[in-house]
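Changelog note: in this version the structure field was regenerated for every chain. One regenerated record is shown below for reference.
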Amino acid sequence: MSKETNQPRMKEKYEKEIIPAMLKEFDLKNKMSIPAISKIAVNVGIGRIAAKDSNAINQVVQNIAKITGQKPVVVKSKKSVAGFKLREGMPVGVSVTLRGRRMYEFLDKLISIALPRVRDFRGLNIKSFDNQGNYSVGIKEHTIFPEIEIESLEQVHGMQVNISLNKKDKKMGIALLKNFGFPFKE
């Protein structure tokens, strides 16, 4: 975080470096035509974990709250499925949507701290963009985040991180995330 402006580091980088670079790269006149990250959604499926241990749900909620800095919502099943031993109203996931300051702080933590800690990391797959320029990345172990104390863990779970942009342009979305410093495979 910068001392002068009291903004998250990634937001400052977006405003001072990325917007001018993308205006030049795409030969645009108006900075409003550059895409911006509108929200980041972090989701964890806890179907198997919840069926075995109801205390594990609280553990997942606490872990995601530590990682994101915001209390997540427990998502419950809408209908019963006998084949999966699932009853209506059982918890099946945990979800949190980040916007504003927390979004930029989570993005900074993801790029500069968490992804380099992934074992045998070779880069993110660039094919995970949808046609609107939104990006999704699956993380197998939540232990890559520094807030998680590995000694006190009972369960290791994965998570899905979805980065949504306000403009529907895949090419510009790829350029935006590259400028933020996302380590994509070449």
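Spot check on this record: The chain has one domain: 9-180. The helical segments are 9-25, 47-52, 55-68, 100-114, 170-180.
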